[in-house]
Amino acid sequence: MKVEIMKMIVNEVPNLGMAKKLMERLNHLSDNDIKLLLQALKNCNYNEYACEIVVDVDILKVRTVADQIQLMKTLKNCKYNEYVYRIVINLNVLKARTIEDQIQLMEELKNCKYNKYAYQIVVNANVLEKRTTEDQIQLMETFKNCDYNEYAYRIVVDSDVLEARTTEDQIQLMEELKNCNYNEYACKIVVDSNVLEARTTEEQIQLMEELKNCNYDYYAYQIVINPNVLKRIIEEQIQLMEELKNCNYNEYACEIVVDVDILKVRTVADQIQLMEELKNCNYDYYAYQIVVNANVLEKRIIEEQIQLMEELKNCNYNEYAYEIVVDSD
């Protein structure tokens, strides 16, 4: 670097440390390029972040001087926001996006009032890999419409969702989450790997709506995500959730739905019959045990199982009467 250029830097840049850094990092540039960058820096009032754009090692590797000047101008328009600055220097963004993309994303973050989650959408490695810039902007706009809800953000960046769903699917699911008042369980339905594998986007939305009808009950949610129940068709799953609702979301009623032994040998119609009978038995513990007992399931048909529950009720749910029912001999 020529002495006169070095003098110019020292004279113009108010911060001595920054002046030294400029001389070290811009040594490979032509005099004209250095002058252009100094003028751009001056236009930015020697803002600290603007200075870093000029000297950042990663930026110098992948962006031209003209690019750097564009980035500095955009940063200025964004009032030197810290998150906007971080988009500029983020290595993942620099590798995966063009300068035009980067500027679009910075401007979109401005539209999102520099929300920290919106910023995370921009720089998230999974999003950058699986989605185009246009997709990212669509997702950020939907996120904005969701009042920057944390669960809506989770849908955007979740690796399983990005793998299994398109951008359009993601947007549909975020809008459904909004309809579900950003319920935590509704969000978990969206991102659950078992649900993503077994159900389409439309079916996921059906399940979220059914969960809403069930007042976001914990046990109803458990039915939605249970990997064994997911082997049933979607209509059957919803039938079982509705029956659980009729059973006042009783824990034992839920266990009838998800129990592996029951799922092996009983149809959905059978399960509903058993839940109704359990309700008639006031959700008695021994009555429930008859429903899930492996010996009973193996040796008795559904009608016989219900008969035994009714007889146990007649015996006032006596422990010894229960033992007669489940005894293997």
Question: Your description of this structure?
Answer:
- The chain is mainly alpha-helical.
- The chain is rod-shaped and about 105 Å long.
- Helices cover about 75% and strands about 0% of the residues.
- The protein has helices at about 5-10, 15-25, 30-45, 50-55, 55-60, 65-75, 80-90, 90-95, 100-110, 115-125, 125-130, 135-145, 150-155, 160-165, 165-180, 185-190, 195-200, 200-215, 220-225, 235-245, 250-260, 260-265, 270-280, 285-290, 295-300, 300-315, 320-325.
Shape: rod-shaped
Number of strands: 0
Distance between the termini: 96 Å
**Approximately how much helix is present in the residues?**
over 70%
> Helical element count?
27
Topology as H/E string? HHHHHHHHHHHHHHHHHHHHHHHHHHH
What is the SS-derived class?
mainly alpha
Mean pLDDT value? 95
Largest sheet: none
Poorly predicted residue ranges: none
Strand content: under 5%
Overall radius of gyration: 31 Å
Secondary-structure map with pairings?
Elements: H1 3-12, H2 16-25, H3 31-43, H4 48-55, H5 57-62, H6 65-77, H7 82-89, H8 91-96, H9 99-111, H10 116-123, H11 125-130, H12 133-145, H13 150-157, H14 159-164, H15 167-179, H16 184-191, H17 193-198, H18 201-213, H19 218-225, H20 234-246, H21 251-258, H22 260-265, H23 268-280, H24 285-292, H25 294-299, H26 302-314, H27 319-326
Structure characteristics:
329 residues, mainly alpha, 27 helices, 76% helix
Short description:
The protein has helices at 3-12, 16-25, 31-43, 48-55, 57-62, 65-77, 82-89, 91-96, 99-111, 116-123, 125-130, 133-145, 150-157, 159-164, 167-179, 184-191, 193-198, 201-213, 218-225, 234-246, 251-258, 260-265, 268-280, 285-292, 294-299, 302-314, 319-326.
